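Late entry, written up from scratch paper. The run itself happened at the end of the previous shift, but nothing got recorded in the book at the time, so transcribing now.
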Amino acid sequence: MQFANPAYFLLLLLIIPFILWYVFLRDRYEPTMKMASTEGYRHLPTTWLSMAVHAPFLLRMIAFVLIVVVLARPQTTDPRTESDVEGIDIMMAMDISVSMLTADLQPNRIEAAKAVGVEFISGRKNDNIGLTLFGGEAFTQCPMTTDHAALLSMFKNVNCNLQQQGIISEGTAIGMGLTNAVSRLATSKAPSKVVILITDGANNTGDISPLTAADIAKKEGVRVYTIAVGRQGKVRQPVAVLPDGSYYYATVESDMDPATLKQIAETTGGLYYSADNNDKLREIYKDIDKLERAKLKVNNYSKRYEAFLPFGIGALLALLLEFFLRMTILRRIP
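Output as recorded:
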């Protein structure tokens, strides 16, 4: 138990003069009756009533002490705990260009990446994790947070409709996506800062090139793990939007750019991965999960709660009991 205002305990020093007055001076102010001799009372048996004569003073002292404790504001907390945990700051940068709807992963690239990403986030409970989305433009969908429930809710709702609806421009701006993610990590004090970049294409738009973004990441001490999602070569992917809003699929040559993704990873001290199926994608996330672990010392404190009520009730009961005794069995005849 802790006390918010311990200085009030100095009031307990007032008990000393109260006790001295009661022991040495009380008889001067108490009503008395003169008798020729008290010899006849000397051998009378001691009764509980004669012993209770001092109870009102004792109850008053108890009430005073309890009132002082209330003024000192007792508070309860759970015990402090100190533990070593593993936690880092992570930004996930995900490509949401229309090509991510290609079904060479099941059910398609973006849904496969989301499913494995959810597993990864759920297993990193001590990390600050955020989410950047990019197509022809980049934006932060969720800043870094340890509220993984909120993050997962946003993550599960990620889709490729923004390009279809014209909310963001067409294309794949890998450099812009990486720069956006790095900017969120720039002020981080974490011992390890990581970007997981997921894309299925080559940079074909944006004001910042991927390699320039990699240099920025290196300068900020951010490692970038790049993941190329999907198969290389001929793939069936959406190439146009039909009048009814559905996509027209055609067999085209994949425009994936492994060389650039490898260079981004090498520049920043990260690793490049290629995921051409769901199992490989899951293995990649497990590999990153093992690589990125940093020890952090965490002190946990529970919330403080006011605990004065029992002492306040005790003081009130003591005063009421004193009043009852003085008005009944210890009542004095005026």
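Residues 1-27+54-80+303-334 form one domain.
(Scratch paper discarded after transcription.)
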